[in-house]
Amino acid sequence: MEFDSSPVFLNSEKITRYIDGRWDSLISCLETSFVLYSSDDGQVIQPVRENVTVRDYNGLLFSMPVCSSPHEALATKIITVYNDNHLRGLPRIQGVILLFSAVDGVLKAILEAPVITAKRTAGATAVATKYLASENPKILAILGAGVQARSHFEVLTHLYNFEEVRIWNIHQNNGEKLVKELNDKGFHCVCCSNVEEAVRDADIIVTATFSKTPILKAVWVKPGAHINVIGASNPTSQELDPELMRSAVVYTDSREAACVESGDIIISEVEVYAEIGEVILGKKEAFRDKTTVFKSLGMAVQDLVSAKLVYDAYTSDLQK
Ligand SMILES: NC(=O)C1=CN([C@@H]2O[C@H](COP(=O)(O)OP(=O)(O)OC[C@H]3O[C@@H](n4cnc5c(N)ncnc54)[C@H](OP(=O)(O)O)[C@@H]3O)[C@@H](O)[C@H]2O)C=CC1
Ligand SMILES: O=C([O-])C1=[NH+]CCC1
Question: Which superkingdom does the taxonomy of this entry point to (predicted)?
């Protein structure tokens, strides 16, 4: 029997070709992944990710396995997160996603992780924002000016027509660089010199930084705003002050992960009200008129559905 076992290797450039301009398909896949995960009927098996600390170099190694029966697929994302890599001129997040057939265990593809991680995280935020933000949001504030800030800008301006987009970054020159890059493409964004100025009256806020301590305070946030908390993905880091966490209705992607991984939840001692999948399933309410927090940690099933979207587009292109 002939058996060609070679998996395809999809680098960032190829992935970008098959994922760019496909926000609606990606958002729809991610919505499905939230539903499958929160259905709790064994269709998705996703343990809490493992991580190893690289103490000497301020690094982490994450391993994120998952099986999705409806997709007949298995995946594992393996990434490193090195906080000081900007000093080396390297990305802080690197790695690969391995995509297997669940039917026979064949490794189908190896995909570079950064582009998918950027897009699927922003796409997941888009799903949460669609359910939790007020109708017709006018002001968007993004805290951070890195990879996630860019992909969140892209997806949220795809979904909404904002009157104002404000960006704040710890190093203002990097914030200004991003604002210039976006304005050169025809957008109109402003760079703010402090967080309070950036979030004043904002309807939607994104925190996408590597801060370990809170950067966003309750007193600065308009009641009823929706906040997507993307950073602080470990039990000792926070992006939001505990008062803000306690005054908001808190949603997350995975309750099981949030209770062991999210400093914003653990240190603030808040209850998770619902997984976003439970809201989509109609099991829990979406409080659009209250201040809401979506604590995003990132799930392997999001990587699986996104990798599959790219792989399927690539293989159907080959058959043309
Ligand atoms: N929820 C999820 O699914 C995912 C979450 N993440 C998390 O999102 C966050 C952003 O990741 P990503 O955009 O890829 O990273 P980048 O390195 O591209 O950007 C990081 C941003 O954080 C800023 N920053 C660094 N240190 C601090 C600090 N002490 N206080 C405030 N801002 C700071 C950086 O500013 P400057 O460059 O000027 O130093 C930069 O704007 C990280 O916490 C990461 O772990 C990432 C992937 C998925
Ligand atoms: O889900 C993910 O890929 C990550 N979450 C935190 C860092 C990377």
Answer: Eukaryota
